[in-house]
Design goal:
The complex is a heterodimer of chains A (about 325) and B (about 325). Chain A is α/β, with parallel strands linked by helices and about 325 residues long. Chain A has eleven helices and twelve strands. Chain A has two domains: about 1-125 and about 260-280, 3-Layer(aba) Sandwich (Rossmann fold); about 130-255 and about 285-325, Response regulator (Rossmann fold, 3-Layer(aba) Sandwich), CATH 3.40.50. In chain A, helix 8 (about 220-230) links the parallel strand 8 and strand 9. The termini of chain A are far apart. Chain B has about 325 residues and is mainly alpha-helical. Chain B has helices spanning about 1-35, 40-60, 65-85, 90-115, 140, 145-155, 160-180, 180-190, 190-195, 200-230, 240-250, 255-275, 290-305, and strands spanning about 130-135, 160, 280, 285. The chains are: A alpha/beta (about 325), B mainly alpha (about 325). The interface of A and B includes residues 37, 189 and 194 of A.
């Protein structure tokens, strides 16, 4: 009798141990070319996964891609080592995730900023045009010269989507506003070229721009530095970048990639992870404009009121912001 | 009219900013190559100097210490190149490429180890950088039409290292063509045997040449990371060392023509940046891709069509071995 009880207990303990280890997940994240300290997009993801690690104590594997050929290798390596879920960062990883997800149908993948239509992939995209609309309004209201600038990273539809929303917002606040747009380059190195970003920004300032919005990953640091050196205003992107240069940073178009990254790991841990497509906009809190102690001196009550009004109108559907990626055009 | 003038002045300004590291590197390469040492490692030396200068400036808060450290780093690399090519008669291209690859990796590794920012150095405060200086009388003379505007907009308002770069050109010309050292340096690149026969040490001359090269590339790297920008970023030289080498060959290994070639590359780059998103009369907005290809297309056209044969120093690339 005693022996059977002992065996049962031992068995139960053993069973519990196996269940516990099944609960544990082995998440992995593959950052893209900007690197996890780009103070912007990748860093947002890094913040999210670090928060997950702090809260749950579960370690994750990570890899920073430094050239294009490494993406698929890195993701495949993670899958081979049994990592699950695997988080891919950025539109450029779409083909890599697609290829690897087919080879490892049991592993779960999350892609941020891109769409992969497979049963084991979760695709998270953001309505950047809505957030850009709001910061465009702020830029137009803060500009004294009536000219605002935009510096994009690599010339791709996603960045045009930022630009298009920004222009629409600026025109919404001031129909006569002039928007000067530049793209840093046409190759992935455009995400990490602060020298060229600064040069483009100086060129815009020379043409009368006094507020510049950068959607350019690591290149943005050069844009903000140039704005600071010239005493003009700049708008950050993806992460809240207001702290970088208080007094220069007018606001930031915050894209909650950290939340998306955190949720991907957390939902896998909780067993609520679901494949499919999610678009996070203003209504879902996926994008927003940033107001904190670093920029509150630059934002007047009137600016705040009209931006909050526009935000409510967009959520209610009263203002329709055009999505460049829906038809690859931007209405003038 | 006034607007067009301002546009030209601003484009020239951007040209100067972009051309500065090219000029310094081209002059550096000229000293090395005129003495017979091929220097493909301009890129790597500049990158190493940029990293060390930014790191030292970030830690000490002094741009001068940053500059000194940048020059020291580039000079060490130059000595390494010299040790391989002059002392051990190694292949100069291989040694140069090795330095480039080494620096591309080492800067990031050290950057991650020292600052934990993925290979970037911390952003520098204004006091730790070489900031633009306005020359005397520039505000006063700004009111004078044309000349005054030129002076205040174009000549004044750059950082110290820009002026150093522009002074380096006449200085390089004077050293190479008007001093005994310059004569010997050119001779050792053409016919080292004759120089040796005259009782002058070939190795010591060439070492001095690569050291000058290290000094100038050190200034160029420092310009990139703590004068024009405010931090070091991975691979921030972005091929400018190679462009400078091209400018040197383009300018037939002569200071003034190489200087002109650097300004041309800078101008094309500045125009490319400014033409983006501008509606050109009669053409409309030109696609970004075309604008960005413009400097390279023009380079090919100019090289193929207008520049005659460039003759390299005769003994370039050949290690000097004394006959026994």
């Amino acid at each position: 009798m005693f022996r059977t009880t002992l065996t049962t207990i031992a068995g139960a303990v053993l069973l519990a141990a196996t269940v516990a280890s099944a609960d544990e997940i082995k998440p992995a994240v593959v950052f893209d070319m900007g690197g996890k300290f780009d103070k912007s997009f990748n860093q947002g993801v890094n913040d999210g996964v670090m928060r997950f690690k702090e809260e749950t104590g579960i370690a994750y594997r990570e890899f920073e891609v430094t050239n294009e050929t490494q993406r698929e290798q890195a993701i495949r390596k993670m899958a081979q080592r049994g990592s699950d879920p695997i988080l891919g960062v950025g539109f450029a990883q779409v083909p890599a995730i697609e290829a690897v997800a087919k080879e490892f149908p049991k592993a779960r993948f999350t892609i941020i900023d891109g769409v992969v239509d497979l049963p084991n992939v979760q695709s998270v995209v953001f309505n950047e045009h809505e957030g850009s609309f709001l910061v465009g309004m702020i830029a137009a209201m803060a500009s004294k010269t009536g000219k605002v600038g935009f510096v994009g990273g690599m010339d791709i539809p996603l960045i045009r989507k930022f630009a298009c929303g920004y222009v629409a917002g600026a025109k919404h606040a001031n129909p006569k506003i002039v928007v000067i747009q530049n793209m840093t380059g046409t190759t992935p190195s455009a995400w990490n070229d602060p020298g060229r970003g600064a040069e483009l920004t100086k060129g815009q300032f020379d043409r009368g721009v006094d507020v510049v919005y950068a959607a350019a990953g690591g290149t943005g640091t050069g844009v903000y530095q140039a704005a600071k050196d010239a005493g003009k205003l700049a708008i950050g992107v993806d992460s809240n970048q207001n702290y970088l240069h208080p007094g220069t940073m007018l606001t930031s178009m915050v894209k909650r990639v950290d939340v998306a990254a955190y949720n991907s790991f957390k939902s896998a841990l909780d067993g609520t992870w679901k494949p499919g497509f999610q678009a996070l906009g203003l209504a879902e809190g996926g994008v927003d404009w940033a107001l904190d102690e670093h920029n509150k001196a630059l934002i007047t009550d009137k600016m705040k009121a009209s931006v909050e009004q526009a935000k409510a109108d967009i959520i209610a559907g009263k203002i329709q912001v055009h999505d460049y990626m829906s038809d690859n055009t931007c209405p003038r | 009219m006034e607007e067009a003038f301002v546009f030209v002045a601003l484009t020239m300004n951007a040209t100067i900013r972009v051309a500065t590291p090219l000029i310094l590197c081209a002059m550096a390469g000229m000293f090395s190559e005129r003495s017979g040492i091929i220097d493909i490692s301009l890129e790597g030396k500049m990158l190493g100097a940029a990293f060390i200068a930014a790191s030292v400036a970030a830690v000490t808060g002094s741009p001068w210490l940053g500059l000194a450290a940048g020059i020291a780093a580039a000079s060490c690399l130059a000595l390494l190149h010299g040790f391989a090519c002059i002392t051990h008669n190694g292949n100069q291209v291989v040694s140069g490429v090795a330095i480039n690859i080494l620096m591309s990796g080492l800067t990031v590794v050290l950057g991650i180890a020292w600052f934990q920012r993925g290979g970037q150095t911390p952003s520098l405060e204004a006091s730790a950088r070489f900031m633009p200086i306005s020359l005397p009388l520039s505000e006063f003379l700004a009111e004078v039409p044309i000349l005054g505007t030129l002076y205040s907009r174009l000549v004044s308002g750059h950082n110290l290292l820009v002026y150093v770069a522009f002074l380096a050109v006449p200085l390089a010309w004077w050293v190479l063509f008007r001093t005994r050292f310059g004569l010997r340096l050119r001779a050792v690149g053409e016919n080292p045997k004759a120089v040796d026969t005259a009782g002058i040490s070939v190795a010591w001359l060439r070492y001095r040449a690569v050291l000058i090269c290290g000094l100038l590339t050190g200034i160029a790297g420092t310009y990139l990371s703590i004068a024009n920008n405010a931090a070091f970023v991975r691979d921030m030289t972005a091929g400018q060392g190679y462009i400078a080498l091209a400018a040197l060959i383009f300018g037939k290994w002569r200071p003034w023509t190489a200087f002109g070639a650097c300004l041309l590359f800078g101008l094309l780059n500045a125009i490319a940046i400014r033409l983006q998103g501008v509606d050109l009369p009669g053409i409309g907005e030109v696609p970004v891709v075309f604008i960005q290809a413009l400097p390279y297309v023009l380079t090919v056209v100019l090289l193929a069509g207008f520049i005659g044969r460039a003759v390299a120093p005769k003994a370039i690339g050949e290690p000097y071995v004394k006959e026994r």
